[in-house]
Amino acid sequence: MTLEVEKSEMIPALSQWAPCIRELVERLPEKVFKWAIFDMAEHPANTFAHGRVALVGDAAHASSPFHGAGGCMGVEDALVVVSVLEKALSNISGLSKAEAVTAALQAYSTVRLERSQWLVSSSRDMGEIYQWRYSATGSDPMKIKAEIETRSRKIWDYDVDQMLAEAEGECERRLKLSGQQ
Ligand SMILES: Cc1cc2nc3c(=O)[nH]c(=O)nc-3n(C[C@H](O)[C@H](O)[C@H](O)COP(=O)(O)OP(=O)(O)OC[C@H]3O[C@@H](n4cnc5c(N)ncnc54)[C@H](O)[C@@H]3O)c2cc1C
Known about the structure:
α3 packs across α6 and α4 runs antiparallel to α6 (160-180). The chain has 181 residues and is mainly alpha-helical. Helices cover 57% and strands 8% of the residues. The chain contains six helices and four strands; from the N terminus they run βαβββααααα. The chain has two domains: 2-35, no CATH class; 49-180, no CATH class. The protein has a two-stranded antiparallel sheet. The structure holds flavin-adenine dinucleotide.
């Protein structure tokens, strides 16, 4: 994930930057770390749950850091997982514990898949937008601002209560289905 390199490797990349930035680089130690950035955009999981096993956070949907929200997605996942597990285990009626947990985790996966994978692909776009490589916004500051705001609002203005209500509804549906089998 990281590679130790000579500071001189980064100097040409910043040669057109403002003097204060170049001066800052001069003050760095001779050895610096190069960070690789990986995401799961090309390999989205088709489910986050199988039986009594589920993936949450980066294990399920690792993202690049350009939205600054990968950690938040993991926290939202955790909130859904605890709420569906609580619902399923307090309402087992006729099912085994394993069946209830399976239904709960399937509900978690259903509710979280689209949003968390949107973040992975949008975060990739954000990297392009910041570097003026995104064709729809190019180097136009007003277009860039509007695009960043629209995408960020999707993260900031998310209705968490609505998400939990959906998760509980989906969990109930799946518990009923398991009971009928
Ligand atoms: C440069 C950068 C900037 C970021 N900025 C932000 C930000 O501003 N806001 C934000 O919300 N998110 C940000 N993120 C994303 C955020 O850091 C991650 O989404 C978050 O840390 C994922 O949490 P996690 O618990 O899912 O996984 P991790 O944090 O990766 O935790 C997994 C843990 O499991 C441990 N582990 C692995 N294998 C095993 C094993 N076999 N046995 C036991 N333990 C094991 C690992 O050591 C690790 O501690 C950023 C990420 C990067 C790289």
